[in-house]
Backbone:
């Protein structure tokens, strides 16, 4: 019997290979809270541009991937479109800010009712009454939803009476809205379709990368599945999304991501009707009628979508899957770049128990944050680390086996163990890939990318919050959100820098000084939030100044570039107060 000889190919281990690192930006959904992302983005663009310059990588693409759900998809599309036009991330961020402050925000909301004498008297008599600022926000949304004030995000359509149960009570009337104003607003600031690609002009990965990748997420209503729309082409050059059983559902958008995909990601159920998307560009989707109903004339060639936030309001997992899949299928002969991820969350994951709400609006507000906050990224991050560790371990054991077998002079023994190894690697796995295809153990040896860093910037302010905050388009609130995003971004970057430092106190207790520095930052941020991001009494300024002094006191325990960089970051924050 002839034996099939199995030849070893020594596997390289990720740890021993310097790899190009890509940056990814992930933007959460949250309506008007998307303005917060703008503030954080401005800081990231400034900070990362300076960081690249210091590292001798000036001109390096700032974000290789931008992934977004709902309003995060809108911000991502505008950011990338503006970058492609201006070749500047900071200018792109400025344009995105204009989208919020000049296009979406409202400067003329008449809230004179809130300022009447009776309201001031009401507050005096009722200690649980909302603050003037919270009332301003509440009635801003109230006036917008009542349809008495026009805006550039939606308008109320003709009410739809219940013709199923013939329940004509007001609560059963469907007050559906049109998203046409939002679509027109986006199209003023972003050019569609957005089709980008990873340049293949030779050279290093750093030299090849020229265009950022946009990932937009929406929910196919019939399938109940999150669908990824990708500005990068597949291996055959097409841009398609396959999903469903046996991947039989195919949506072709070969020219790139269109406004349709971005609007699908923004289609909040009940507030809007379905967002229809044709399976290819040849399908003619009619505009909504006066009742704002979706086109259902060609159901066979049309899929219907809802807001991506329903299933994945923080599409971190989808980002990781798309990154791995692209390099395995499109660039199989190149090492998968490691990832450095920046997450911007607009829904607070936690709340101080001392301010737990007991009023109806406050309870609704907290419920919404729990429903739409970042529920999975911490878990997915940890799973990614575990998978990378297992992958590295198995590959090193494989190499060790090769070294051991190479010490045998007996060819028969070598061939025998090679054959056994071949059969082991051909064993079918219990798990299947995303295309529902069976795999073999040898596929588990494919190299994975590493998550080098995950930095989260999360809105956590509950001062003057309202349950309808995702609909507050007043200019005053939009500017406040942008300001919050800026401050939170600086605090997050400084805390991350402190965490990465190797500090030891005189008693040789590691991390003691990190804790002190982190606590000082937490105290400053807590004071800032308590005063709704105002520092009128300069208490926050004083804490940041003390933080800087603490760092200076550690200069003999730090490398010069560490202390100087940390002081520089803190001084930028201090000067903004």
Residues:
């Amino acid at each position: 019997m002839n034996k099939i000889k199995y030849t070893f190919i020594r596997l390289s281990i990720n740890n021993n290979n310097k790899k190009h690192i890509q940056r990814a930006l992930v933007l959460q959904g949250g309506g008007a809270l998307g303005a917060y992302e703008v503030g954080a983005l401005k800081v990231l663009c400034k900070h990362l541009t300076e960081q690249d310059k210091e590292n001798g990588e000036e001109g390096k693409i700032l974000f290789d991937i931008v992934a977004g759900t709902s309003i995060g998809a809108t911000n991502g599309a505008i950011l990338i479109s503006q970058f492609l036009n201006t070749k500047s991330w900071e200018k792109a961020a400025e344009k995105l800010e204009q989208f919020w402050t000049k296009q979406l925000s409202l400067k003329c909301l008449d809230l004179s009712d809130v300022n009447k004498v009776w309201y001031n008297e009401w507050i005096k008599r009722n200690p649980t009454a909302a603050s003037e600022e919270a009332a301003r926000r509440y009635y801003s949304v109230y006036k917008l939803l009542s349809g008495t004030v026009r805006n550039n995000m939606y308008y109320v359509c003709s009410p739809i009476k219940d013709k199923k149960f013939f329940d004509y009570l007001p609560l059963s009337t469907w007050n559906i809205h049109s998203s046409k104003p939002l679509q027109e607003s986006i199209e003023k600031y972003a050019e569609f379709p957005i089709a980008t690609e990873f340049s293949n002009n030779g050279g290093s990965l750093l030299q090849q990368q020229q265009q950022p990748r946009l990932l937009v997420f929406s929910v196919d209503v019939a399938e109940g599945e999150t669908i990824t729309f990708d500005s990068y082409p597949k291996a055959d050059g097409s841009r398609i999304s396959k999903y469903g059983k046996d991947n039989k559902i195919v949506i072709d958008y070969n020219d790139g991501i269109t406004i349709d995909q971005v609007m699908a990601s923004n289609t909040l159920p009940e507030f809007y009707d379905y967002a229809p998307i044709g399976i290819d560009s040849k399908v003619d989707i009619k505009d909504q009628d006066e009742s704002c109903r979706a086109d259902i004339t060609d159901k066979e060639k049309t899929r219907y979508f809802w807001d991506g936030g329903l299933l994945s309001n923080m599409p971190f997992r989808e980002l990781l899957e798309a990154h791995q899949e692209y390099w395995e299928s499109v660039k199989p002969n190149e090492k998968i770049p490691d990832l450095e991820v920046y997450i911007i969350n607009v829904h607070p994951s936690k709340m101080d128990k001392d301010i737990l709400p007991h009023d109806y609006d406050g309870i609704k507000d907290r419920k919404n944050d729990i429903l739409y906050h970042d529920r999975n990224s911490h878990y997915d991050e940890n799973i990614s680390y575990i998978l990378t560790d297992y992958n590295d371990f198995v590959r090193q054991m494989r190499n060790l086996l090769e070294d051991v077998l190479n010490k045998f002079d007996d060819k028969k023994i070598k061939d025998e163990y090679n054959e056994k190894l071949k059969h082991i690697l051909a064993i079918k796995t219990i798990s299947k890939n995303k295309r529902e295809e069976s795999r073999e153990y040898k596929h588990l040896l494919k190299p994975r990318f590493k998550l080098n860093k995950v930095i989260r910037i999360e809105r956590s302010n509950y001062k003057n919050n309202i349950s309808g905050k995702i609909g507050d388009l007043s200019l005053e609130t939009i500017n406040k959100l942008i300001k919050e995003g800026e401050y939170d971004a600086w605090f997050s970057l400084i805390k991350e820098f402190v965490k990465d430092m190797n500090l030891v106190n005189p008693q040789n207790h590691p991390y003691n000084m990190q804790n002190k520095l982190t606590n000082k930052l937490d105290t400053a941020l807590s004071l800032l939030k308590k005063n709704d991001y105002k520092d009128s009494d300069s208490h926050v300024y004083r804490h940041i100044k003390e933080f800087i002094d603490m760092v200076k006191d550690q200069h003999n325990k730090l490398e010069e570039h560490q202390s100087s960089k940390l002081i520089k970051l803190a001084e930028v924050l201090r000067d903004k107060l």
About this structure: Residues 1-18 have pLDDT under 50 and may be disordered. The longest strand covers residues 213-220. The CA atoms of residues 67 and 215 lie 5 Å apart. DSSP finds 17 helices and 14 strands in the chain.
